[in-house]
Amino acid sequence: MTGLLTTVLAVPYLYRRKEVFYLRLRTRGVASDSTTISLRTFDKAVATKITADILKRLEEFHLGEPSATWKRLKENLHDIAQGCLVNAHGAPSLAAYGAGRSKLRGANGVSQAPLKKAFYITPQGVAEPGCVLQIPDYGNPEKGFSNPRGEYVVYLTIPPRAARPLIKQIVEVHEANYRALVAEFKKSPPPVRHGKKVLEPYEGDLPFFENGDGTVTFKFKRYASYVDQNTREAKPLPLKVVDSKGTSIANVPAIAGGSVLKVRFSMFPYGWTNVAGASMKLHLDSVMLIKLIESRSEDVWKDETVEGSYVYVSP
Questions:
Q1: For 233-243, what is each residue's pLDDT tens digit?
Q2: What percent of the chain has a predicted confidence (pLDDT) above 70?
Q3: Total-model pTM
Q4: What CA–CA distance (Å, rounded) separates 206 from 280?
Q5: Residue 3, φ and ψ in degrees, nearest 5
Q6: What is the pLDDT at residue 156?
Q7: What pLDDT, on the 0 to 100 scale, is given for residue 163?
Q8: Distance CA 55, CA 57 (A)
Q9: Residue that is last in its domain, among 61, 84, 117
Q10: Among positive and negative, which fits the CA dihedral 158, 160, 163, 168?
Q11: CATH assignment at residue 238
Q12: For the chain: N or C, fewer Cβ within 10 A?
């Protein structure tokens, strides 16, 4: 297996420091460049289970991108680890309850230090037509479809093999959230008014779909502004776009469908309502532009030419 991989990792090292377990990884033969992850537990059995989960997901990612560099592996390792820690210790939405108790032990030997927001990076994929990454979409107020906060949107299509680890991460976070919601619903059923029927737990569609050719399209969105709670003014939230070397692009081009991208995002699980079932949102954080296909509005008539008719001649 290792003969297929450009970067070969050394045997992982699990150790304890101040009673908390840590996982250290590095490339084979390079001891000076390692990366360390706190597993947030005092229990060796829990640490071993989390380590196995991290290594399994990292292996899936690595086999999906055999030419991945150590830098690329480290970036994804920390995102993978955050997802595994969420599954083991609870959702990020509960992180605030651990604040100020980082030295305490939980009943199951888990450190109560708050979790950071988990971010993930997709493999490279192709943007679908209609992506909105240069100028936010504010809707069409004249037709009643206003979106005053604006929105950035991209649907990214990824090859089957590279998409599988990403699907697994999304499904695992969703299922962990749904199990917790259902357990809370059964423990404390919502009050029901006389003559009304309780809304039972149900699941909605997840933010990806498989295409006929086996590729998978993922849906990413985020608002382009927020309302300042003190001034009540709308403040912009510009979308960060970088080039293939990671350098920020000051003037984002008109990125169109067919462009090759990577997307950095976070996951936001939510519960069921009368409108939709429990599911996930993939919150767009930033974009790496690998290959640019620009949107050119003047080209929309190119396929509608009429032979022998009027032709404009510039002066």
A1: 878 889 999 99
A2: 83
A3: 0.63
A4: 6
A5: -65, -20
A6: 97
A7: 94
A8: 5
A9: 117
A10: positive
A11: 2.40.50.140
A12: C
pLDDT at 92 over 60: no
Number of domains in the chain: 2
| pLDDT class of 41 with cuts at 50, 70, 90 | confident
The tokens describing 8, both together, are: 């070969």
C-alpha distances out from residue 231 to 157, 227, 228, 238, 307, Å = 40, 8, 6, 19, 59
Range of the domain at 37: 1-117
Q: Say if 225 falls within a structural domain.
A: yes
Task: Kindly give the residue spans of alpha helices, DSSP state H, lying in the chain.
Answer: 44-64, 70-89, 160-187
Burial of 306 (C-beta count, 10 Å sphere; 0-12/13-18/19+): exposed
Say yes or no: 127 and 266 in one domain. yes
Banded pLDDT at 302 (limits 50, 70, 90): low
Which residue do the tokens 């403040």 mark? Answer: 235
Which pairing describes strands 279-291 and 240-242: parallel, antiparallel, or unpaired?
Answer: parallel
DSSP structural state of residue 111: B
What is the dihedral sign for C-alpha 156, 61, 2, 35?
positive
